[in-house]
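User: If you would, consider this record:
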Amino acid sequence: MSEQSAKPYLVRAICEWCADNGLTPYLAVKVNAHTRVPQGYVKNGEIVLNISHSATRKLTIDNDWIQFTARFSGVSQEVSVPLAAVAGIFAKETGYGFAFTVTDDPAASLEKATAPALGTVEGAALGNEGDARSRAKPSHLSVVK
């Protein structure tokens, strides 16, 4: 039996922590062929999404997908993100959260085997230094094992 990835649990935990502390959870996503987001907001193959309860409707975070409806420039759109495409989750106001390793293979993003197993999550806690927008790109983070 293979272990499940810790990633969806960490994403849900940061979302709940943000809600409990009056913070705004932002999701950094590496867009691929399986990611359904408004393309006009994608920059350099990435998008940062506000996934707070006030910004989304019908938010669900299961072990494979994050899905919700949100308004972009006043137009309601459905968003669907495979968990494998999530590059990070952090609080907008403080920058605290996690960054994750994302594979460049879009086909692999739907396979459960590509997500790191519990105990081998390659991620980094995001600190409080710098601007929150700079944390949307996890390339400046170091891997903590």
Summary: The two ends are 23 Å apart (CA to CA). The chain is about 10% helix and 30% strand. Residues 91 and 113 are 28 Å apart (CA to CA). Residues 111-138 have pLDDT under 50 and may be disordered.
